[in-house]
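Risk register update: the risk of archive-format incompatibility is retired. Evidence:
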Amino acid sequence: MKERRSIREEMELREMEYLSPYAARSKDSRGRERKEEECDIRPVFQRDRDRILHCKAFRRLKQKTQVFLLPKGDHYRTRLTHTLEVSQNARTIAKALRLNEDLVEAIALGHDLGHTPFGHAGEYALNRICPLGFRHNEQSVRVVESLEKQGEGLNLTWEVRDGIRNHKFSCHPHTLEGQIVRLSDKIAYINHDIDDAVRGNILREEDIPAGYRKILGDTTRIRLDTMIHDVIINSMDQPKIQMSPDVMEAMMGLRAFMYKNVYQNPTAKREEDKAVKMVINLYEFYISHLEFLPEQFLEKMESGRSCREQIVCDYIAGMTDTYAVKKFEEYFIPESWKI
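Archived output:
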């Protein structure tokens, strides 16, 4: 009697029949660092997506700054909502191109797990004060490899870790799914940061240069539609993910416009110096007082797996905005001054 295929095997077979020749197939994954028994229902990339979705670092993203520090309003993006928007954009593109949606979603959901509190201000502070340097994409890989699950890590597949590590625009993912997330990240943050800047009265739609609006559109919805359609049309049946030259040039020009007018705007960034100093003070405090770190971090240092500077970076990078403020108050504000 012929043995019946598992649900996972049936799904892997459907991938082989349906996905583009350029897609990453679950059955052909380079695998995990630690061997483990296959799930009878879920292919490997779906399991990775689920592991990221259920990990503590993912839940903490809801209290981490995207661009605006402690905005007055409930509708500004956080690092979590940014992640979800990247995931949605990436899945739309992957589905249209018949690429692996599970892999795309896993990379997208995990790409910012290593981001610091206070957004790029926190990243700048740690990179400035720590002699090892700090890059949030590399930290995201540390989270999934050696920080989650009390130091065991999530044991994700090579393809997911590669996509997370290489999601920055200067990097080069090895899969088309990773390339989708790399581009979707830029598409998401450029558009939602415009939306937030308009909401915060820092920017008006008519402030955006007319040349960019002519190519990309006059609203966030139209710009998203233009960029996503352009990626799909220019990447269809191609061995790389790409935009047309005109749309790419306009998008990068819009990104430069945002850096000048929003990301470096005194109104939007007036509190950033305080956040930078807060993170630097926390780093210096923990470097001199390792006994205040949680036991699992001290164990990594004592075992020789991480140095003092690395574990302090690991701990601070994992903090939410509110927890970092709480710890700063605990160590640096006299009790009688606290409200």
